């Protein structure tokens, strides 16, 4: 459990979580719910995320959290698609890659933040708060 779990305003966030690993998906979903996020859509790969974004009105989402390495459409390809279509959509990348190439490529494609897996609930909370410029109390 996170200390002071709920973050003011997170109950209004609409989040698209894109993760093919069931454990990482459950962990991220659990943390998001602890933080107060109740409007959460989960899909297993980048193609499913693109389909979901095309199906729904994109204004339904305030944040995309995506794994980097996935089948069908990778997180990087999803990020590129999102930046072409919804250039200001906040995007948090989850990855097992901690190398300089990953960081350079992610930054070149204007990722808002990234977390190296495995991640802690506190790290996820901190990154989301940073994306939305919420200062810790």
How does this model look, in words?
By secondary structure, the protein is of the alpha/beta class. Helix content is 39%, strand content 18%. The chain has a five-stranded parallel sheet with strand order 2-1-3-4-5, sandwiched between helices. Strand 3 (63-67), helix 3 (75-85) and strand 4 (91-95) form a beta-alpha-beta unit. Helix 2 (46-55) packs parallel to helix 3. It starts with 13 loop residues before the first strand and ends in a 6-residue tail after the last helix.
The gyration radius over C-alpha positions equals 14 Å
The helix content is 25-40%
In whole angstroms, the N-to-C terminal distance is: 18 Å
Determine the strand fraction and express it as a percent band. 15-25%
Tally of helical runs = 5
List low-pLDDT spans: none
Biggest β-sheet, characterized?
Answer: 5 strands, parallel
Oligomer: single chain
Number of strand segments:
5
Tertiary shape:
globular
């Amino acid at each position: 459990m996170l200390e002071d779990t709920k973050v003011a305003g997170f109950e209004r966030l609409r989040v698209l979580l894109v993760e093919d690993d069931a454990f990482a998906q459950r962990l991220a979903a659990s943390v998001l719910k602890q933080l107060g996020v109740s409007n959460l859509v989960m899909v297993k790969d980048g193609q499913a995320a693109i389909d979901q974004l095309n199906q729904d009105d994109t204004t339904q989402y305030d944040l995309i959290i995506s794994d980097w390495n996935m089948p069908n459409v990778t997180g990087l390809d999803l990020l590129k698609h999102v930046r072409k279509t919804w250039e200001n959509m906040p995007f948090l990348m989850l990855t097992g890659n901690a190398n300089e190439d990953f960081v350079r490529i992610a930054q070149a494609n204007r990722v808002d933040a990234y977390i190296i897996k495995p991640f802690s609930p506190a790290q996820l909370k901190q990154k989301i708060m940073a994306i939305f410029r919420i200062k810790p109390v």
